[in-house]
Hints:
Residues 1-22 are annotated as: Disordered. This is Alpha/beta hydrolase fold domain-containing protein. With 313 residues, this protein is an alpha/beta fold. The chain has one domain (7-307): Rossmann fold (3-Layer(aba) Sandwich). 38% of the residues lie in helices and 16% in strands. Strand 4 (87-91), helix 3 (105-115) and strand 5 form a beta-alpha-beta unit. Helix 1 (17-34) runs antiparallel to helix 2 and helix 3 crosses helix 9. The two termini are 27 Å apart.
Amino acid sequence: MTPTDPAVNTANPADATSTRTDPAARAAALYRAVFDPSADPSLRGLRGRFDRMLDEFPLDDTDVVDEITVAGRPALTVAPAGGGTGVLLWFHGGGYVIGSPAGYRHLGSALARVTGRTVILPDYRLAPKYPFPAAPEDATAILGEVLQAHPSAVLGGDSAGGGLALVAMTALRDSGGALPTAAVLLSPLADLTGTSASVTEHSATDPAVTATSLADIRAAYLQGHDPADPRASPVFADLHGLPPVLVMAGGSEALLDDARTVADRIGEAGGTVELVIGDGMVHVWPLFESFLPEAAVAMERIGGFVGAVQTVG
């Protein structure tokens, strides 16, 4: 690929409506149950529904889960049976207001399986109690400490966690720090302005992210801060000098343009980037790999990308 022309793949691995209609509908229904406007509107209620959705997914009972502390923050590690070869640091999603390492154990388990690495799931501070810039400060400190111990670690994140991964990498780059060997961004929330065409186009049908939910995130997380600040919306950051990046987004999600713009700007800055668009897929569709065929294929794609990293640390 040329630096200014990211590789773009429209993924439809099932290639048959009959094989994806029911599982895809189930994934959308799970999101709708979490963000049901008639349910308990409190933050506690929303966090509980999100974690309960994640708890429905299976864990590999051979995984080894431990509690650690990274840069002063609690974290979980999920290692495949026999131990991982290398480390994958993963920032969970949840719009900077929900999500937890415990809730993301199942995704950590799947990532450990496909990459063969020990997955670190840190507990960064959440809004509204800890508004911007608490999350990027935590993410940058956590990434820096992980890289000190594991210089060839891979970085990843989904949704808000994908945005945090970008912000942390640019912060370390600007300070002269080390960078991860590669990065994986799933449906990154990289533009909090909410002005992209895909937000307008897909808000009515996206079960997870809408223009309204982005406005709620701005209110809770930014609390009046400029949403175009590159530390909040890394689509506005200088994205030169980053390691190889895999960006994945659902073709039917509101954050599709966030992913496209991130990939374009990394490519324009001379970086190596691969953009995978899941045809008809929802936000962070690899999350549903236990029952959605396209998600299982996407997870294998992630494993292949990480496996191509030559140096392990």
